[in-house]
Amino acid sequence: xxxxxxxxxxxxxxxxxxxxxxxxxxxxxxxxxxxxxxxxxxxxxxxxxxxxxxxxxxxxxxxxxxxxxxxxxxxxxxxxxxxxxxxxxxxxxxxxxxxxxxxxxxxxxxxxxxxxxxxxxxxxxxxxxxxxxxxxxxxxxxxxxxxxxxxxxxxxxxxxxxxxxxxxxxxxxxxxxxxxxxxxxxxxxxxxxxxxxxxxxxxxxxxxxxxxxxxxxxxxxxxxxxxxxxxxxxxxxxxxxxxxxxxxxxxxxxxxxxxxxxxxxxxxxxxxxxxxxxxxxxxxxxxxxxxxxxxxxxxxxxxxxxxxxxxxxxxxxxxxxxxxxxxxxxxxxxxxxxxxxxxxxxxxxxxxxxxxxxxxxxxxxxxxxxxxxxxxxxxxxxxxxxxxxxxxxxxxxxxxxxxxxxxxxxxxxxxxxxxxxxxxxxxxxxxxxxxxxxxxxxxxxxxxxxxx
Length: 452
Prior knowledge:
Layout: H1 5-22, H2 26-45, E1 52-54, E2 59-61, H3 63-83, H4 86-89, H5 96-112, H6 117-135, H7 141-172, H8 179-183, H9 187-204, H10 213-219, H11 222-242, H12 250-271, H13 277-293, H14 303-326, H15 339-342, H16 344-358, H17 364-378, H18 382-407, H19 421-439, H20 442-451
Antiparallel strand pairs: 1-2
Helix pairs in contact: 1-2, 1-5, 2-3, 2-5, 3-5, 3-11, 3-14, 3-19, 5-6, 5-11, 6-7, 6-11, 7-9, 7-10, 9-11, 10-11, 10-13, 11-13, 11-14, 12-13, 12-18, 13-14, 13-18, 14-16, 14-17, 14-19, 14-20, 16-18, 16-19, 17-18, 17-19
């Protein structure tokens, strides 16, 4: 049962944090959260050569699950760093802030380590319920709206997934994902695939199931929005990869291709007119979701390139949100005016992440897109790659617009920011990893291609 220990570490320390919070020991609750993440990461490392199936097949610790679990824990730890100091500054004084992060991470790990639809759904609901609460922790009008909207639309996505499970069970006689059953789908199984994809596409922010994303990102506390942009996507895309066998059917393949086309066009075009940095990051995440969904067309063979993209994307987004968190909810792009003069480290970090998200070399963002587009093009989808490259070029405008405001726009500087050593540590670590993956990606790529 050693494969369950990383998950149990998160749950046990979430309970311990909750107990500390009951006695108003908030610092101990925070420390307990950090300890749970570190302990979970250590046990995940110990599982590299112990891939196995647990609980009669309900949990599958395969290569994808182990690596994705590590990403979830690492990025949750970095979100903790963003929250350190920010939470008190904006009035989040409750220890459940950290409890909810641990539970959400546990739900995401359940999603990525199962090939059983009921277990994936359970993990999705644990992640979702914790996320609804996290979105509303600022307790202002925008935050309350974000929480309610996310919850209502999340219920709709859950209904889709449950209907898909019911239809699948009626044909397969089991909720375990069976590649042989999926490979010869009946009309009912095709309908099941549509419903299952719809439920997970909501979590991944793929059009037309994206409508929650801008409002939720804008209303949520900045570290929480960073968590949604990274950890939720990891859970959703690895779960989508596990049911990608449905795409052997032309109707479902057409559905996902149509969603990819709409997502990359809509996300990039709407981002052009955004003046709120968190809404801009929301539409950025929508467009990147469209790129990542292209890997699903490769089936299981797209696993390594999807995980490489998720790794790079995670560090880019966490890095960007470390800067956004430091500006203490000054989220208008105009608030970034001449940031290079008032805080050159934050401006340099944000400029680097914007350049990487746009896909400029020698950053990891460039190579993530290059490898993904190369693999998809080699599979015969060159027209889709041409569209993705065009929309990626379009994104240069809104990413560099932020850089222009920080370095070239003149005017009165009103921005308030706060230096927190933990957030700066997260920013510098993200810069290091994104740069390293842009210049020396061979080790990770070799590992993913062999291991995954």
